[in-house]
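User: Unspecific monooxygenase, Ancylostoma ceylanicum:
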Amino acid sequence: MRNPAKTFSLWHALYGPIYTVWLPHPMIVMASHEVLKEALIRQGPAFAGRPSGYIWSMFTKNSVHGDGIILCEGERWEQIREFAHKIFRNFGLGRTQMEEKIVHHINYMIGHIDAKLHGNQSIKLDMEEPISLCVANIIQDFVLGKSHTFGDPQFRKFKSLIDAVLTDVASKSVQMVNAYPILAYLPIPALRRYKENGFALQRYFLNAIREHRERLEMDGEPRDFMEAYLREMAVQRDNPHFKVTVGRRC
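Assistant: Predicted structure for Unspecific monooxygenase:
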């Protein structure tokens, strides 16, 4: 499929606003604003589940309802999602303090771009890198309470791991393994890289959790999302949905 957008548009015209694509498992495509609004807004809870798959389960130890904030579903997902929204509201989601942090990182990005141009407006500059690093800094600032200069080797390593994982997980060979897990026993380079880089990312966040636990304080305003989450873990120590999640991964 050389032009997916064009192909999906043609299928929309041929089959209507809802159709199935086999990749190789059936994937339901909702191809109109009205259908999306009906499914995701009016009937949001009915479509809140997450598909299970081999390539994700390796990071959640095959937990029935997944794990973490991104890879879980069901009651666990509902509780964690509700709590995550509460944290971001307390941090000023949609209000001035959140906007100020975002503007700070955007200004840093603009300064980085200006330095690259050296006053020469005719220089061609790939904007993917500064924009992606800026977004990564904004996310890390809110979640981990830290940010990096664009030249920080650790920061660039972090970005390269994410890029590599997203590239390999979308590859044909890894998607075939996801559909037919028995293929994982074959020496597939993309799958090997996906595992190595995925677990490297997991270790990065587990180290961040460990550092936050070592300096965790229960008083005052939480410094970032992770500290707020760990506090809630302490309060809800008997709640399995919180206990398992942070105990094993972010």
